[in-house]
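Fig. S4 source data, part A: sequence.
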Amino acid sequence: MSVAVPSWRTATRDRARVSGIASFPAVLSMNPYQRLLYDHLRDEGFELVPESRFTLRWLTDARSRVDVLHLHWPEGLYTFQRGPAVLRPLGSRAKLVLFAVRLGYARALGYRIAWTVHQVYPHGSPGRGVDRLGALVLARAAHVLIVHDETTRDHVAAALGPGTAARLAIVPHGSYVGVYPPGRSRAELRRELDLDDAAFVFLCFGELRAHKSWRLVVRAFRATAPSGSALVLAGMVRSATVRNAILAETAGDPRIRLLLRFVDDAEVAELFGAADAAVVPRDDGGTSGSLLLPLSLGVPVVVADRPTYRDVAGNGDAGWLFTPGDERSLRAALERAAADPRGAQRRGAAALQCALRLRWPDVAARTARVLRGAGA
């Protein structure tokens, strides 16, 4: 399914003073989210400072050129993952203490601290021990906490205490419209994946790990009637245990194609273009780039019926909703989608319209207002 998309351009605005901003972690190459954010924040007067390090020495040296410390996924700053597993809890406790000291020092130096809370705790974490303490320490140190939706705001307030409510700001997640090059044709990629031209193809895309609920997708799909549909499971698998589990769960079903590797940016749009619908199994209710990506590429979604997902997907106009975590409900949604290919095309057009509302210039402008108010 090919959809023509516009290119967004913004004019650089004159600013009396440019504010330096440091990102932790540094901008990740595997996900364009941070790059898009900071590219557009530049138009709002915030310049990303490269090679930032969350150390006492760097905080001292960088103060003259950095105003805002912006944290996204902070667990790498307070957890210790090297060496023998038996020593990691002790190492994490020591690193957590150092994390708290560095945050306090940053505040004493006059930095403004912002935390974009993509999720309160790392995916797969029970929210206890070091992860809970790390989140509490950061929440207390941050001048502002940015969330992308009301559900995450509620999670933050419930998990980190009512004292965070006054410092919470909702700024939507921008879309990925126009980010990925078109790539090869639908027909060419289907031939490469050995998919019939007439098949209704579902794509489940993204890093494959436990929280992604890939097992729910596979089991629901395998339970559908074998009537000309196919499932492509694509994404990197870091764990040998997860890889073996995927191979075991998908064995014996010729309708399932596996692409268990990192998908390069040049391949993303063509992979979605070969699909008729994307299955997004995440069900915790927080905004997910895995949902915004297919919408941005004009591909309808099969998504859990959570308030945020329902809203982002145009109250269901851009796809099909299923009861979160319910295999039977997901199976029914997959069968409804496969039975209505023309309807899928209409929903794909609605998907793109949903994504077009989430413009990065608007997101950056709102983020900049929040960052300027942080610590005021």
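Fig. S4 source data, part B ends here. Residues 19-174+359-373 form a domain with the Rossmann fold fold (CATH 3.40.50.2000).
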